[in-house]
Amino acid sequence: MPQRTVTIASRTGLHARPANLFVQAAAAQDVPVRIRAGERTAPADSILAVLALGAGHGAEVTLEADDGPGADAALDALAALLARDLDAEEPAGA
Amino acid sequence: MPDLLARSAVRLDAAAADRDDAVRQCGLALVSAGAAEPGYVEAMLDRERTVSTYVGEGVAIPHGTLAGKELVHHDALCVLRFPGGVDWNGERVALCVGIAARDDGHVRILSELAQILLDPGRARRLRETADADEVIRLLRPDGEENAQ
Question: Which chain A residue shows the shortest CA-CA distance from B106?
């Protein structure tokens, strides 16, 4: 099963805004992706399930998808997103 | 340490003209509870305009921007129910859980809140109960009663 392990780069962790961007990106992928943090696994396109992971800054998470066309591309795209500090990309003044 | 959710910050019969009005009411409830400076209300509106805090199932969890964290005195929640519903970018919101959190508190608070909302039974009672004290019990994180 294709997997990517990535460290949460966003300063404040995978919470509201970074979590929203991540979930939107996950929903736009061609294949379902799961995200695992510790003992918990969540569908990557569910905001509540992703928030429930409680993945803070520096937490290591694993993304996984079933084998198939598009799986690697989806995991690469989502892993790259988590490796960015999404909080730093807030519009000025927000 | 003050309670995370004060009894005075629970309103089961709120009404709001629109999303911003609902967010503002949540912010004022947190300010009234002594959890944040008045400026936190604007930080919550900024957050909402940047990215919606709608999480599905008629629930939104308004909270401030990163910059707004400095205006928070202590971690706190508020619960406002809108029986008439509030239009939230095309979704209908009937329950708002407003959040004020300092430092890293928000990741833990959001995680605990999300786990509660993912439990269909608890989420339904949160939406339907007529008892404000039950709302407080429902939002108490698992195990907190045993924590010293």
Answer: A15
Please tell me what DSSP assigns to residue B33.
Answer: T
A12 close to B (CB below 8 A) = yes
* Ordered strands of the B76-88 beta sheet: B5-11, B76-88, B91-100, B59-60, B54-56
Taking the CA of residue B66 and the nearest CA in chain A, the distance in Å comes to 8
Cβ–Cβ contact A69 with B under 8 A: no
Q: Which CATH code fits B5-139? A: 3.40.930.10
B90-139 residue pLDDT tens: 999 999 999 999 876 778 888 889 999 999 999 999 999 999 999 999 99
pLDDT tens readout for residues A8-36: 998 878 887 789 899 999 999 999 999 99
Cβ of residue A51 closer than 8 Å to a chain B Cβ: yes
CATH fold of the domain at A3-89: Histidine-containing Protein; Chain: A; (3.30.1340)
